[in-house]
Prior knowledge:
CATH class: Mainly Beta
CATH topology: Rieske Iron-sulfur Protein
InterPro entries: Rieske_2Fe-2S, Rieske_2Fe-2S_sf
CATH architecture: 3-layer Sandwich
Keywords: 2Fe-2S, Dioxygenase, Iron, Iron-sulfur, Metal-binding, Oxidoreductase
Distance between the termini: 50 Å
Structural class: alpha+beta
Radius of gyration: 20 Å
CATH superfamily: Rieske [2Fe-2S] iron-sulphur domain
Shape: globular
Strand order of the largest sheet: 1-11-10
Cofactor: [2Fe-2S] cluster
Bound molecules: FE2/S2 (inorganic) cluster
Largest sheet: 3 strands, antiparallel
Strand content: 35-45%
Order of helices and strands: HEEEEEEEEEEE
Helix content: 10-25%
Number of domains: 1
GO molecular function: 2 iron, 2 sulfur cluster binding; dioxygenase activity; metal ion binding
Number of strands: 11
Domain Rieske: 33-127
Amino acid sequence: MSEIKWKINRLISSVSLEQEYWGGKMKYEPSWVFTIEENELQENHVNMVFPKGLPVLLIKKAGKIYAVSSKCAHMACALAGGTLKDYIIKCPCHDWRFDIRTGEFLDAREIKLPVYEWKSSDGKIFVKI
Ligand code: FES
């Protein structure tokens, strides 16, 4: 009986340790990550970069740059393979459409892709991620 109690206590303490670890004790601080030379960005072209290994689209439109996740909010297909028309990128898998300026899914704006801050320094594009 006491062995069972000991195993249950051990299980409970391991769960709470995991909750402490993942539940807010560790803080993730985003940082600026170099992605691409600014002169490599083509206007109206979907540029794929991988800051910290994450797939991010850099899209230059009318001289402005937008940084948005390449992972579709539906089933995670790569939006990099989608089609871009004006400010809308369409997922190649099931045609969900997102506004690259806000990350919003056009049919339900509460669903959003992550959008990232970016900056240019010495001709290099950095993304905060
Ligand atoms: S995975 Fe993008 S629309 Fe389904």
